[in-house]
């Protein structure tokens, strides 16, 4: 067999290998693009489904339960939970407004009152001060608590986490309002 012959055979073998592996890779790529379940995943408005679920539950958040948890809640864990809020909110005194208003002194603060923040009409019209109960309901389900407000956050559903978060928000204050009895 001369070199030319050998090269032709080697070339044929390599082409065959390329075809085999190429096909295998191609199939892999095709497979990985297949959805895991058959059919298409239609875009579902999750918030709408959640709201429907909430509406089905008669009373919404039971604040009595949160109140019970609040007395033993951990502000430290609450600070960790607050990480989810820091995309939009600063917690420090004199902190800047971001996508959401600065939250220093939020417990007991009149709603929609932070200087320099452009609140939605829905929140402005709500009126009154932020009590622990109203904060709990708002943070648990912002859409249901203040329909039409512009805080794009699904809400904290875990009751212990919610209580911890309230305990933390309470610390953002020169004069923390007393916990509800
Ligand atoms: C995606 C951004 C975003 C995230 C995340 C977010 N918020 Fe907000 N928040 C807003 C916006 C925007 C407003 C103002 C709503 C309005 O004017 O309707 C707001 C308003 C508030 C208010 C009312 C403030 C006032 O001055 O009346 C509170 C309380 C609050 N957020 C708490 C929280 C907490 C606690 C978390 C985390 C668990 C959180 N937010 C997560 C954007 C966010």
Question: How would you explain this protein's 3D organization?
Answer:
- By secondary structure, the protein is mostly helical.
- The chain has a domain of 110 residues: Cytochrome c-like domain (Cytochrome Bc1 Complex, Chain D, domain 2, Orthogonal Bundle).
- It has 8 helices and no strands.
- Helix 4 crosses helix 8.
- Bound molecules: heme C (HEC).
- The site of heme C has 28 residues, from helix 5 and helix 6.
SSE diagram, text form:
Elements: H1 3-33, H2 46-56, H3 63-70, H4 75-81, H5 121-126, H6 132-140, H7 142-145, H8 159-171
Helix pairs in contact: 3-8, 4-8, 6-8
Bound molecules: heme C.
Heme C binds at residues 84-85, 87-89, 99-101, 106, 111-114, 119-120, 122-123, 130, 135, 138-139, 149-153, 156, 165.
Q: What key phrases describe this protein's structure?
A:
mainly alpha; Cytochrome Bc1 Complex, Chain D, domain 2; 49% helix; 0% strand; elongated; binds heme C
Summarize the structure.
The protein has helices spanning 3-33, 46-56, 63-70, 75-81, 121-126, 132-140, 142-145, 159-171.
């Amino acid at each position: 067999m001369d070199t030319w012959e050998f090269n032709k055979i080697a070339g044929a073998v390599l082409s065959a290998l390329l075809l085999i592996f190429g096909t295998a890779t191609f199939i892999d790529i095709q497979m990985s693009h297949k959805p895991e379940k058959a059919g298409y995943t239609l875009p579902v408005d999750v918030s709408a489904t959640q709201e429907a679920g909430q509406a089905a539950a008669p009373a919404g958040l039971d604040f009595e339960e949160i109140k019970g948890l609040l007395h033993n809640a951990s502000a430290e864990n609450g600070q960790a939970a607050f990480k989810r809020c820091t995309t939009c909110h600063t917690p420090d005194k004199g902190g800047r407004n971001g996508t959401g208003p600065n939250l220093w002194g939020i417990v007991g603060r009149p709603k929609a009152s932070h200087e320099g923040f452009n609140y939605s009409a829905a929140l402005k019209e709500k009126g009154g001060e932020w009590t622990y109960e109203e904060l709990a309901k708002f943070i648990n389900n912002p859409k249901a608590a203040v329909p039409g407000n512009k805080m794009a956050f699904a809400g904290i559903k875990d009751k212990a986490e919610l209580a911890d978060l309230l305990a933390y928000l309470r610390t953002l204050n020169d004069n923390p309002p007393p916990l509800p009895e």
